[in-house]
Amino acid sequence: MEVGDTVSLRVATAAGPTEIVGVVLSRTSDLLVVRRRDGSVTEVGLASITAGRLVPAGPARRIGVAELAAITAQGWRALETAPLGDWLLRASAGFTNRANSALATGEPGVPLTEAIARIEEWYAERSLPPRIQLVGDNPELADLLGNRGWISGGVDDVLTAEIAHVLRPLAAADEPPVHIDETPGPRWLAAYRTASGPLPAAATDVLTNHPRVAFVSIGSEFDAIARVAVDGRWAGLFAVEVTPPSRRRGLGRAVSAAALRWAAGHGARHAYLQVAAGNDAARSLYERLGFAVHHHYTHWVASASE
Question: What would be the CATH architecture of the domain defined by 159-293?
Fold first, then answer.
């Protein structure tokens, strides 16, 4: 039983045996910390477990890396795309790395050295720094990029969850007033990326470049916001932000739940989100909600572009 596993445990207690079903959040030599289906977190001594089994993973965990990467690219759609074998070149006037990088999953259909050269040329034609979003581990491609002078950035994790499991312990009645709009108004945009300065002109185009998207906010002052996009059975949760004065009040959880509840109403059953590997606060929030790491990716950029 490892972190991220869903387990069913029979545990001996002073009041008699009890059943615990949930996701393992952490493990030590003598203790499991389990998030139960009702959202509560329980510490279970290994010595008290009389029987246990792994619960088969749901679709949100079983989906392949390449398939999920393609779905995440649909949730945050670039303004311009072009195929390179299985790879996808994306450009959006420089707004966000995800919308301005080549998504490298599968095979590019040409030798890797030629693929890298084509990417450099494609982005140069658009006056953009050549970038590659390398999904998972690809030592051969990473070595070629490093030898060519490209520089790797931080690692981002992609987390997934079953929406029903996330929402089950969260009552809508407990949420502050929620606003859901089809487009991001000026106040939503003002709350987005507040630490990064003014948004570029392409920002609204990228944010709204989707046929089934919603912009969620909580509080009259837009204390917390989120963007959610639905592609088939999958919902992507993006742009979750809480204004500094409103932090540590549970609004990040509330706006995420509101966004996923809207997505469930539009047919979504599974959810994904992306978080910087070092963002412990966000990781803790989403793990408490029932998300677990599915895979990771790294952005590489041509060094001449730095």
Answer: 3-Layer(aba) Sandwich (3.40)
